[in-house]
Amino acid sequence: MKKVPLLLLLLQFAHIAAAQETDYLMAAFEGDKKLMAKSGRAKSVVIDPGHGGPDYGIIKGQLNEKGVVLDIAKRIAALAGRGGFRASATRSGDHLMSFADRVNLSSKEEADIFLSLHVGNHQEIVIYVPLAAGPSEELKPYLAESGQHDYQLRTAELLKSMENALGKGFGRERVIAKPLPYSMLSRVGAAALLIELPSFDDASYSSELQAEIADAIYKGIENYEKLTAEKES
Amino acid sequence: MKSSRQKRKVRKKGNPWSFILLAAAVFVTASLASYIYLKPKFTFESAFISEIHSRNKSLSEDEEKMPSPELYGNSSGASSEEGFREDAALAAAGSVITEFMRTYEVELLDLYMDRSGVIYIDLSAGLVRNFQGDVFKEFNVISGLYGKIKESVPGFTAMKILIQGKEAESLAGHIDISRPVGEEIESAGMQ
């Protein structure tokens, strides 16, 4: 009779040990699991036109950043929708959205690709890559919430695809990539980039140019899709 | 003829409430009387309780006398030397921030440093209202401010920017300042 409680105790220990090992393995492959769950369905593309509402962004004469990026975002979303992607935008009208709302929308849409659009004060197209981690102790609690952590490799692949597509469209010397710490993008759980387009002094932002920009960015999305599809298959 | 059993039943039927009310009234009156009579006899001066009372009183008086923690930090709990060092560091930070933000016509409203070296900088709303810039310009304001404070304040680890006393997400819609900004801002290689 005394052997029964001992046996139960041993079984209990074995159960705890097995559960701990499973937890460890689950955590280790969490990033891949998320990506695997997403494969096999149409990729979700979320376009994020910056600013909006009372925040005009950069203004030059009749042009303002919030309007130009919204127009380009709509064009990209339309192209992506026609190309078989599930496309959406963080805002479809002239209203301001908080960073938190933009990030939440990307989670809700289960974004695979998140592209934030802005206009800069430079001649080039600058592609900003979010930095998901840093060394300082004070920031670790905040970075633990970072959604980018599991997607840095995907973001690097999206950068490569986007650099190629925009380089082909506008010249390689006009496309620059830079790291960006303290960006909303570090909270996004998807391949994410911030694309800052040339200034209003350096580009006319005519309807044709906006269509060209949207087309080049969409080609970048297609390139990325091909690259990841090859890896997944 | 009623049996003796029936007679007992009749006697029991008398109203019991009058008895209960009378007993309650006697009890309450007795309690009140004994409280009033006995209270002065059992009152005593406890040295321990008096000490606690006097300490609490002096603490609350000290809190009233203490300067606002929002202005150049709160040195309570630290030795006078430590407090002096903290105040001096914050005064230095205050002057570099004021100088740096003058370019942007922004006023420094308040400054506070916590024990882990995070400096809370409260700036006037003009910075958000008038700031028109791209990622690089916004980044430069924040990293420049960080660099200036780091040069002048020993023990400084990170900064948290507030606008008009409230948390802000961003200055111009690009850089996330909803959390404290640390040394990554300098090592990002944005130049």
How would you portray this structure in words?
The complex is a heterodimer of chains A (233) and B (191). Chain A is an alpha/beta fold and 233 residues long. Chain A is built from 7 helices and 8 strands. Chain A has helices at 3-28, 30-38, 65-82, 99-108, 140-143, 152-170, 207-232, and strands at residues 44-49, 59-60, 63-64, 86-89, 113-119, 125-130, 175-180, 191-197. In chain A, the strands form 2 sheets. Chain A has a 6-stranded mixed beta sheet, with helices on both faces. A two-stranded antiparallel ribbon of chain A has the order 2-3. The longest helix of chain A has 26 residues, at 3-28. The relative contact order of chain A is 0.16. Chain B has 191 residues and is an alpha+beta fold. Chain B has 2 domains: 4-42; 80-187. Chain B is 54% helix and 10% strand. In chain B, strands 1-2-3-4 form a 4-stranded mixed beta sheet. The longest helix of chain B is centred in the first third of the chain and has 26 residues, at 17-42. The model of chain B is unreliable at 63-78 (pLDDT under 50). Chains A and B meet through strand 7 of A and helix 6 and helix 7 of B.
Which features would summarize this protein structure in a list?
heterodimer, A: Aminopeptidase, two-stranded antiparallel sheet, about 50% helix, B: about 190 residues, alpha+beta, 4-stranded mixed beta sheet
Spell out the blueprint of helices and strands:
The complex is a heterodimer of chains A (233) and B (191).
Chain A: H1 3-28, H2 30-38, E1 44-49, E2 59-60, E3 63-64, H3 65-82, E4 86-89, H4 99-108, E5 113-119, E6 125-130, H5 140-143, H6 152-170, E7 175-180, E8 191-197, H7 207-232
Parallel strand pairs in A: 1-4, 1-5, 5-8, 6-7
Antiparallel strand pairs in A: 2-3, 6-8
Helix pairs in contact in A: 3-7, 6-7
Chain B: H1 4-12, H2 17-42, H3 47-65, H4 80-102, E1 108-113, E2 118-123, H5 126-130, H6 135-152, E3 158-163, E4 166-167, H7 184-187
Parallel strand pairs in B: 2-3
Antiparallel strand pairs in B: 1-2, 3-4
Helix pairs in contact in B: 4-6
